[in-house]
């Protein structure tokens, strides 16, 4: 494991619209899940060696010092730039010990991951949830393990993630699914979207939050398009993407409007939360004056594309 210098682990968020969190934390840099579509490969993040996982040196001391400086408890997101439960975490336990510090300083945690290793830390998440919000977000873009193996070759299967979701929900933790990205021409069918919603509901999910399309930008676009060519030979996916989207950043599914209709209808039938304001309200409402101020515009950029 290579270690990188860091001055701080906690960084204040520009706003609280993304799951209500007000700080971000990344103990690791890079990821070995190999997901073809990962936006964190983009050149703007300046990490050309993205497939190699590296850890922040002296991360736990730095995090402790960052937490000690906080005037009020933070609601901390992790998993945006690198998966906090990469395979090395099983032995290094940096994420686990970071959660212990978050608990000790009476802060909340929102975790995004593709790994079922998150269930290992259920005991600490239980402890945090006694005083602060906890949101567990498992990314599931398809329930088809074979398709996922081509799109996310190094990640645990969707079946394992759904089993982890079941375990977290059975503990009483606020856990759900990030249905994103939904890849045009591969995953953007009514059957796929509804199957994810149905399986999430069966696993006890508190929410499903979607993005009915994918992002592409410099540094990530070429990796993604070449990956599609290699994983799906003969389907001319590169040409289809370039014809429709060119160098656009947000690439909404051509079926986004219809998918949103069937998705939102089924979520309503199941009593499943799927709008951000619903999710944040439910996750934070039991914490009294710790409930975060949450401002959400009527339509986000992605919602306008649906």
Write out the strand line-up for the largest beta sheet, numbering strands in chain order: 2-3-6-7-8-9-10
In N-to-C order, the SSE pattern is EEEEEHEHHEHEHHEHEEHHEHHH
Secondary structure: number of strands: 12
* CA distance, first residue to last residue: 42 Å
Radius of gyration: 19 Å
CATH architecture: Alpha-Beta Horseshoe
Number of helices: 12
Tell me what portion of residues adopts beta-strand conformation: 5-15%
CATH topology tier name: pyruvate-formate lyase- activating enzyme
Structural class: alpha/beta
The description of the largest β-sheet is:
7 strands, mixed
Counted up, domains total: 1
Helix content: 25-40%
Choose one word for the global shape: globular
Uncertain regions spanning at least 5 consecutive residues: 291-306
CATH class: Alpha Beta
SSE layout:
Layout: E1 2-4, E2 10-12, E3 23-25, E4 28-29, E5 54-56, H1 59-68, E6 75-78, H2 89-92, H3 94-104, E7 108-113, H4 122-129, E8 134-139, H5 145-151, H6 158-170, E9 175-179, H7 190-202, E10 208-210, E11 213-215, H8 221-231, H9 237-245, E12 250-252, H10 256-270, H11 276-284, H12 301-304
Short summary of the structure?
The protein is α/β, with parallel strands linked by helices. Helix content is 37%, strand content 14%. It has one domain (2-289): pyruvate-formate lyase- activating enzyme (Alpha-Beta Horseshoe), CATH 3.80.30.30.
């Amino acid at each position: 494991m290579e270690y990188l210098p860091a001055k701080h682990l906690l960084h204040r968020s520009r706003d609280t619209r993304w799951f209500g969190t007000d700080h971000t934390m990344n103990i690791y840099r890079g990821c070995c899940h190999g997901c073809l579509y990962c936006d964190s490969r983009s050149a703007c993040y300046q990490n050309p060696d993205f497939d190699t996982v590296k850890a922040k040196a002296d991360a736990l001391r730095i995090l402790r010092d960052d937490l000690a400086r906080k005037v009020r408890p933070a609601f901390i997101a992790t998993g945006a730039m690198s998966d906090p439960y990469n395979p090395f975490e099983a032995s290094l336990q940096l994420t686990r010990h970071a959660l212990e510090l978050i608990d000790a300083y009476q802060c909340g945690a929102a975790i995004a991951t593709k790994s079922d290793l998150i269930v290992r830390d259920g005991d600490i998440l239980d402890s945090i949830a006694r005083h602060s919000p906890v949101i567990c977000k498992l990314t599931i873009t398809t329930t088809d393990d074979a398709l996922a193996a081509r799109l996310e070759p190094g990640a645990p299967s969707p079946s394992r993630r759904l089993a982890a979701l079941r375990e977290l929900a059975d503990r009483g933790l606020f856990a759900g699914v990030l249905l994103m990205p939904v890849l045009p021409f591969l995953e953007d069918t009514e059957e796929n979207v509804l199957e994810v919603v149905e399986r999430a509901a069966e696993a006890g999910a508190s929410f499903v939050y979607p993005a009915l399309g994918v992002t592409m930008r410099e540094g990530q676009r070429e990796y993604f398009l070449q990956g599609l060519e290699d994983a799906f030979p003969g389907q001319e996916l590169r040409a289809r993407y370039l014809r429709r989207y060119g160098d656009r950043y947000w690439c909404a599914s051509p079926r986004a409007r219809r998918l949103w209709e069937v998705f939102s209808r089924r979520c309503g039938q199941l009593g499943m939360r799927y709008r951000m304001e619903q999710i944040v309200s439910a996750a934070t409402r039991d914490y009294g004056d710790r409930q975060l101020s949450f401002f959400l515009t009527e339509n986000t950029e992605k919602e306008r594309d649906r």
